[in-house]
Amino acid sequence: MSIVYLVPGNMTGGPYGLKELKRREKLLKDWSFNPSKVKVYDVPNGGSSIESSYEEIASIIPAVDRLSEITKYENIDAVILGCFGDPGLDVFREMFDFPIIGPAQTSMHTACQLGHKFSVITIFDSMLNMAEKQVHEYGLDHHLASVRAINIPVLELLKDLDVTYKKMSKLADKIVNEDRADAILLGCMTMSFSGLDKKIEKKTGIPVLNAGRTSLKFAESLLSMDLSHSKITYPFPPKLAKTQKEKKKRA
Amino acid sequence: MSIVYLVPGNMTGGPYGLKELKRREKLLKDWSFNPSKVKVYDVPNGGSSIESSYEEIASIIPAVDRLSEITKYENIDAVILGCFGDPGLDVFREMFDFPIIGPAQTSMHTACQLGHKFSVITIFDSMLNMAEKQVHEYGLDHHLASVRAINIPVLELLKDLDVTYKKMSKLADKIVNEDRADAILLGCMTMSFSGLDKKIEKKTGIPVLNAGRTSLKFAESLLSMDLSHSKITYPFPPKLAKTQKEKKKRA
Amino acid sequence: MSIVYLVPGNMTGGPYGLKELKRREKLLKDWSFNPSKVKVYDVPNGGSSIESSYEEIASIIPAVDRLSEITKYENIDAVILGCFGDPGLDVFREMFDFPIIGPAQTSMHTACQLGHKFSVITIFDSMLNMAEKQVHEYGLDHHLASVRAINIPVLELLKDLDVTYKKMSKLADKIVNEDRADAILLGCMTMSFSGLDKKIEKKTGIPVLNAGRTSLKFAESLLSMDLSHSKITYPFPPKLAKTQKEKKKRA
Amino acid sequence: MSIVYLVPGNMTGGPYGLKELKRREKLLKDWSFNPSKVKVYDVPNGGSSIESSYEEIASIIPAVDRLSEITKYENIDAVILGCFGDPGLDVFREMFDFPIIGPAQTSMHTACQLGHKFSVITIFDSMLNMAEKQVHEYGLDHHLASVRAINIPVLELLKDLDVTYKKMSKLADKIVNEDRADAILLGCMTMSFSGLDKKIEKKTGIPVLNAGRTSLKFAESLLSMDLSHSKITYPFPPKLAKTQKEKKKRA
Amino acid sequence: MSIVYLVPGNMTGGPYGLKELKRREKLLKDWSFNPSKVKVYDVPNGGSSIESSYEEIASIIPAVDRLSEITKYENIDAVILGCFGDPGLDVFREMFDFPIIGPAQTSMHTACQLGHKFSVITIFDSMLNMAEKQVHEYGLDHHLASVRAINIPVLELLKDLDVTYKKMSKLADKIVNEDRADAILLGCMTMSFSGLDKKIEKKTGIPVLNAGRTSLKFAESLLSMDLSHSKITYPFPPKLAKTQKEKKKRA
Amino acid sequence: MSIVYLVPGNMTGGPYGLKELKRREKLLKDWSFNPSKVKVYDVPNGGSSIESSYEEIASIIPAVDRLSEITKYENIDAVILGCFGDPGLDVFREMFDFPIIGPAQTSMHTACQLGHKFSVITIFDSMLNMAEKQVHEYGLDHHLASVRAINIPVLELLKDLDVTYKKMSKLADKIVNEDRADAILLGCMTMSFSGLDKKIEKKTGIPVLNAGRTSLKFAESLLSMDLSHSKITYPFPPKLAKTQKEKKKRA
């Protein structure tokens, strides 16, 4: 049995490599109530990072397929989608019965419980609209203070942590003083796993949410309560269900 | 040069077949200000219909690829996404510069200009949430009267038009009398091409929007005004742009 | 048969004169799919421009009367209200069965389909509230980035196009950079007919909507689809209907 | 000095006649803190009742003109627009400096202070949209429980008060039990002056707001506090101001 | 019979003392249509001022008890809660049948009738969220321009009126020029009784609302109309009602 | 060290008694990742149940005092407010630094992550408005399907579990079929501890949230992530801070 953190792209073959994948698994185990259950997988035929709608959508079906494959040899309790865009949240919930966690959705709802308004730090200025639309999609506009971009590509965020910290720290100051936010979301999983969350939190004095850690906690919580999304709400696609049934009959 | 109506699935190989594809092309030409420009394509390696989030998302990348291929031998002016889910609207706008029309988005905005509130007729009860979320995504909750489902699969809508009309007509009565809508959207392209719109309009006395026809008009309008979505708003994915540039250099 | 663009005031007798009226008719014909159908009328007993609620409301009944008169000798297909305030939109829809186009309503809904948020350039600072209230009335607050005023009176906008362009261009820069809008609406018909829209579009890189041209396209689209507002939604005033009936009886 | 209740139509010449106008003046005096100050005027060249957008808009300019005329021989402290449509609220505020009271606006804001949600009883089913749009215009959708129509013409409401009461009472029961409203607004001035408000209030157990009386109280309150709408917010139309200035100069 | 203005704390024993309490009573009498009816009480066992959620909540039950006590020897017509936080508005309405006026609620609804958007001047930066949440609670976010803090403690506001005026005046300028508000609310009763409202109004040219005076007017208005909150909406707590009934039986 | 579940009233002295308090502690321990840390306390000088705004507000200060007292002899990690009204959530967060969990807030945000819309089952019809206002306060109106009341007093919910189950089950059916909710919240802690949640979940097929269990999970999650509300957002009341400082100085 396991909680799977699914990187919806090819981390192993990318610049961060297997080492980073293992480092994240190690961190998640450290954060977990039950370390032995956490596993990190990636999608070998996926992209290297997600910085546009195109890359987000392109990641979904390969990730669903990868997960289907994993379920064949492993009992899965819950899955965390390893990207702040929550790519395919509804799709995964239709296809699988176990809880599917969206890091953005979970950290936004957590932030709403720690203060009045939150801000999101995203990757590029070209993604500001995407981020605002995501908050709107989750019905949380009322709680949004601002979205600001760090303008460092995902695959360079961990290159020089000092540079990343300085830029992030500058944004955080504006978020607190100009946007009057009560919490900060690190709006990218590589930011969340950068280890900078607690440093920024100390500096600003407001909660900084690590989306990876928040997702893990929500997964563990749901499992502990034996809760998942309803299959009435997210039904398995009717046409596929029919096909599968007919296949079984014939078999 | 052409306005392409892109069925994001394999209609030719499905139960409706090439005949239906050609019938739709004929209808679009009939509706057009400039018939010679309209063409209908489908996606041979796509699914047969879209009745879930999974099928919607699965249709996008093959449809983008298909369109890229078509652009190699054809000058395209504008594209209509041939599904009321507007699958991949943002993705297509990132990838292409010419106008991309979402039938739901266009018919919803048209409906808002003909009355105060509109209702949508969707396929299955299991899709009511999907439809409501789409209206919310477009920021038009204020104008939504209701979503109701006809509960006939897409691929059976044209089987017996009398049955379809009776069911649709019953829903339309409820929409007018109980939900007090001022306009009705046929929330599926096969409904829109069923030829029932004007019949329902006559019966209810409120405008009934044919999403295919509405989309064609909006495409023609944008072209006539030399307007498209901004590439600042929908930038070509930065990482891909870089890769393409490097490729060119090396070549 | 004709699409009438109705200037709700006395342009012929004002500083711009018949020449400007004819110039606009010429432009509309140039923009049209069917030039022979477009006609521009004004309201001889109307005001010279609309820059306040008072002037907006004062324009409506004379414009309705003028249109009634025109219908006596001309078959009208659709009417465009020639003012960005959409003065009397609901009134005209009650009184007439053919489509009535509001340039603000149409260009706002068009803008929503080209990007996430739009900004409006209005005439005076004293009209900022009016413009914001109009966006709210149409239920589109979610899509509004900002309203900014050019502070040049309507009747001086065409005096020195360089001055107008410079001021408009400055506002457009702020709209793009500070307000992060994805589209710009020229919030006055004289601005729309100034010929500056494409120049501003080129400069800013985001779509600039010419409300006159957008309205023409929407009128042509509705006619092509045989659609109009429902008379259930906008019923002819019951008391007047009764009076007319009684008159006919007596006659 | 006086608080003027301005019927925006020709009551004297209509079926209710001068008697009704005087009866309303008598009631307002009875309700007033300062009876000697209240006066009721109508607009001799106006319509007989307002039951559509057309009639509402048509009433405004004659009513403004009538008021301008009255100001020539009478010092006016405040004006109540004698129609629940608040016809021309913004226009009157631009043209005059003293407080202009909209009965709908005032009774809606009063209702919000007596409970969570209110319902409006309007005249015809054809006016339900108009009423809902008015609530939206005032930014109070959050507080609206429902709008329901009595379907008795304005000019017949006082014909047989028993009939009117029975119909109103039936609606009120639905409003309380089905719509769960906390207050009822009589959405027409003739309803408000019918004397049925307190009877319905006793029957339902929730506050019933008489828009005439509420408006009088708000007028008296503003005067007592020396408050009015800001002329920055509702500036006198700039073009008219210029014309008037030039006229004075020449004189 | 009397309108009671209830200071929900111990003013008599605090730095402002009985003198200030009497000064406020004098002002309210001066403002009243019926001076002999107005009385000011405080809560001897209450706090000295309210500048946090804790102090606001802590004030409620002692204030309810104090009011219950007063009702034993005095007929009360209406009560004004003497704090801009409207502490315990729902609680008081459950416990008492006569109108309970919340100064913030009343002045916000009044402001909405004098212009499009209002701003609130609150005490501390630490209270900005509290103020914004209050506006949201009353469903008036649409009408909020901004909240700004004067950062002078309540108990020092009257110390040096020149200092207070200068700071308030500076904020008011920003409110008009940067936040584009149409009205200003003095968001603290001590500000409202400072006598600075009309001075700020003259300086800014937009209405400035004195929450004490506005509340008095609303109390007088409701009494004059024989209106109060419904006891269906704010029922006396069922369990307490039962206990009281049983007590009576036994007695 | 401990997670304290604080019943904000006198359970020990009430009809349910110490037995029920211990039963709840047992359940919380069973549900916990770390059973030894969970403790349940009540407030001996508090009321017996909360079924009105009055009782809710009356519970807060005694509960704050009780908690202050407990902190003197026990290290507390986090506190769960043991009432679905989340009484005093902001107050507790001002007064204490460790996480304060509101069961309604937490279960609402959890529900939003399991489906599109949720419904709440509350105690009395007289509390429907209270419940709707709470959802609005948390900015989640968009996600609310309905509130329905079971109309069994809190202190009788556990009397006959069959009766309670039957009524709850009937409501749940309406919630699924008429209100189209995707999740159900048991809107009272006694309901949450009744053991009926999983039974209703099985019957309806949609997630049923036990607010006690959800709160425990959120408390454990926050502690595991070393997160709490920001003290900038919820500052200790400035006046009290000053007093405490002065006290210390003198001591």
> How do the SSEs of chain A run, as a string of H and E?
EHEHEHEHEHEHEHHEHH
- Under CATH, the topology of the largest domain in chain A is which? Rossmann fold
Q: Please give the CATH class of the largest domain in chain A.
A: Alpha Beta
Largest sheet of chain A: 4 strands, parallel
Oligomer state of the chains in this structure: homohexamer
Domains of chain A, number: 2
Radius of gyration of chain A: 18 Å
Please indicate the percent range of residues of chain A in DSSP E strands (runs of 2 or more).
5-15%
Structural class label of chain A: alpha/beta
Average pLDDT taken over every residue of chain A = 96
- What percent of residues of chain A adopt helix (DSSP H or I)? 40-55%
Strand order in the largest sheet of chain A: 2-1-3-4
Query: Low-confidence spans of chain A: pLDDT under 50, at least 5 residues?
Result: none
**End-to-end gap of chain A:** 29 Å
CATH architectural label of the largest domain in chain A: 3-Layer(aba) Sandwich
The total of beta strands of chain A comes to 8
